Amino acid sequence: MKKLTFAEYYNINPDVLNRYGAINPCIAYDLPLFIDPFLIFASEKKEYKNLHASIIKYLRFLLDIASTININSGKFKHWFVFSEIKQNCFGYSENGNDGKSGAKKMGRALKNNLEKIFDSYGINELENVIHLSELNIIEKGIGKDNISDFTTQLIFEYLLEYTQTFTLTYISENQRIKKTINNAYFNYEFKRWLPKEFVLPKYGRDYMLLVPKDIVVREELWINKEDMLESFEQIPIAISNLELRDTLSNFYYQALPQVKKKDGTIREPYKKEKRAAAELTITKNPIAIKYYIKSKEDNRMSIVEKNTRLMDFEINRISSIIPSLASELATRLKKELSVKPIANDSYSESISRILYLKKVIECQDGYKLFYDSEGNIIRREIDLQKYFKAVWYASDFNADSEVNNGRGPVDFKVSYGKNDQTIIEFKLASNNQIKDNLKEQAEVYAAANDNPKIIKVIMFFTYEEEKRIKNILQELYLLNKNNIILIDARNDNKLSASKVKSTK
Fold first, then answer.
1. Residue 114 to residues 62, 135, 414, 436, 489: CA-CA distances in angstroms?
2. How far apart are CA 252 and CA 236, in angstroms?
3. Is-contact 391 366, C-beta < 8 A?
């Protein structure tokens, strides 16, 4: 059976990695984890304080030379553009660890916004602390993956040394490699990223990189635009400058729509209306960003503690449980396919694989992977997509994920040559846009792909979600259509195997 995790590949007990403080990465595909520079800043560890200081030093170096650099020059590429370091196995790539490239866009955005990041607006209560993740607020299209990749390069030497120490202590000599790593550290005298030699875990002709779990996030960076917009009403309250506080509050509340109900009273603004008002207020008063960040700085210890609690469960789940399930699904499917004929077309093949996944989730306890240890629902389309990827085994058909076909990426495109293509979209019934998506999204993708066949897979977790999605499908005349597959991940309507036997 294929070894999917770092621990399995190097014959190490996962507890050893856990005690060392490192994540147990999956070597088959990227884990949806991201290095958050705010966690480096917020930590009380001396080594992280040094790392944060080194990040600031490099950003100040970039600030000093930014105005003199042409974005088409070699210097710009060397100083501002850092591609993903794939050896840490983090990011969005679903098939292998090559990731998505937004490096040049990130470099351009950083060059254009360095002064904004460093500007403290001259207000005493604002600490002049620099946060790289501010860039994903002030620049559209810069996300957590871009920030994570850039931060990884800035702390690359530390991660290499961190991995080398583990390698020399726990990994057998025949699984080590002495390798010269390009761009390992920055030399300010020469103003160049220079190579350095390390002893690292050998992976083919390449190497693996370990990352401490206490600088990693799963969903969003702790400083991010969505959080700022959703919590905007709390920002003015925390400002001691009365004039500024009133300015922000008045601008925000004047931007909210005043809609009267039938009884003459003003209705409460909708969430999207509050978000739009917050975004307009921030656009006109960018100093609000600095106060949002200050609130994060003031609460950094509680953020570190909360992140630790969240990641203890998350890391175990996505770096251990999911790869294990993927391996189990692949093994089961291999046995079943050995006695079943191979489908004749991509649509039939896709339906067969999806129905198998549906059976595992609904009838073989696969639904449990969507709940945490306390029974709370974990709603993520990306996890469902990974499970589907796991069942795509021993097939002559190609199953490509995150394919951009002219109108945006689709979840999967299954094909056997140019003339046999099937698009598969995975959605959660809780998605607010599910009705519009069912009417339009896949049909738009179809038009961009010479009209391939379309399959929609929708998963629900509660009775309410099940009822809602079935009503929507009925309204759209899609209920019981062969290409609309519902997966029941409810945990309140399933009997355990032992109870099922006892009722017979």
1. 8, 9, 43, 39, 46
2. 10
3. no
- % of the chain residues with pLDDT over 90: 33
pLDDT tens by residue, 372-382: 666 777 777 77
CA 193 to centroid of chain Cα atoms: 28
| H helix intervals, 93-143 | 103-118, 135-138
How far is residue 71's CA from residue 80's CA, in Å, rounded to a whole number? Answer: 9
Q: Which residues contact 270 (CB under 8 A, 6 or more apart)?
A: none
Residue 376: how many CB atoms within 10 A of its CB?
A: 10
CA distance 121 to 123: 6
**Containing domain of residue 245, as a range?**
225-298
- Going by the DSSP 8-state scheme, the letter that residue 437 receives in this structure is I
Across all residues in the chain, what is the average pLDDT?
A: 81
- Tell whether 485 and 375 lie within a shared domain: yes
The number of distinct structural domains making up the chain is 3
pLDDT, tens only, 209-262: 999 999 998 778 899 988 899 889 999 988 888 988 999 999 999 999 888 787
Torsion of CA 133, 134, 140, 142, to 10 degrees: -10
Taking residue 155's Cβ as centre, other Cβ atoms within 10 Å add up to 20
Is 356 found in the same domain as 369? yes
Task: Give the residues across from 422 on adjacent strands.
Answer: 414, 453
The confidence band for 486, taking pLDDT boundaries of 50, 70 and 90, is very high
Distances (CA, A) of 285 to 226, 272, 291, 295: 17, 20, 11, 17
CA distances from 396 to 341, 392, 404, 414 (A): 12, 10, 22, 10
Residue with structure tokens 């696969």? 366
Separation CA 126–CA 119 (nearest Å): 10
Q: What is the mean pLDDT of residues 278-285?
A: 91
* Helix (H), strand (E) at residue 400: strand 398-404
Beta strands in 21-166 (DSSP E): 34-35
Structure tokens at 482: 């062969």
Q: Is residue 279 part of a domain?
A: yes
Decide which of 221, 251, 267 is a domain's last residue.
221
Which pLDDT belongs to residue 343? 66
Give alpha helix (H) positions in 125-241: 135-138, 144-154, 156-170, 225-230, 234-237
d(CA 76, CA 70): 7
Token output for 121 = 């607006």
Q: Which residue has the higher pLDDT, 99 or 343?
A: 343
CATH code for the domain in which residue 416 is found: 3.40.580
Reported as a single tens digit per residue, the pLDDT across 54-70 is: 999 999 999 999 989 99
Closest CA to 296 of 211, 220, 212: 220
